[in-house]
Specification:
Mean pLDDT: 87
Strand order of the largest sheet: 1-2-3
Order of helices and strands: EEEH
Number of helices: 1
Shape: elongated
Helix content: 10-25%
Number of domains: 1
Structural class: mainly beta
Distance between the termini: 22 Å
Strand content: 25-35%
Low-confidence stretches: none
């Protein structure tokens, strides 16, 4: 974040797969296994400046509960409604 300074930046991390979440009936999957952080930007595409940062958890459209589960693993919660992304 320090390297971004005040510039709008988006960084994406891809993973080999999401782990299974038995309590939600979800097996492991390699589809949409990535996260994106937007620094100094309001959206996943750094076009609109912002004073803060946003972390996007990408999950299969039919299993958005995986994102909620992931956030809860680090004591956080999802803010806002699910969004569809072309990424």
């Amino acid at each position: 974040m320090e390297a971004a300074g005040g510039e709008m930046v988006a960084a994406r991390w891809d993973f080999s797969s999401w782990p299974p979440v038995p309590e939600l009936g979800l097996g492991n999957t390699c589809r949409c296994a990535f996260i994106t952080v937007s620094l100094n930007a309001r959206s996943i595409y750094p076009e609109v400046p912002s004073a803060d940062h946003t972390l996007y958890i990408h999950a299969e459209q039919f299993h958005p509960e995986r994102a909620t589960w992931l956030a809860s693993q680090v004591g956080l919660k999802i803010l806002g409604e699910p969004q569809m992304s072309a990424l």
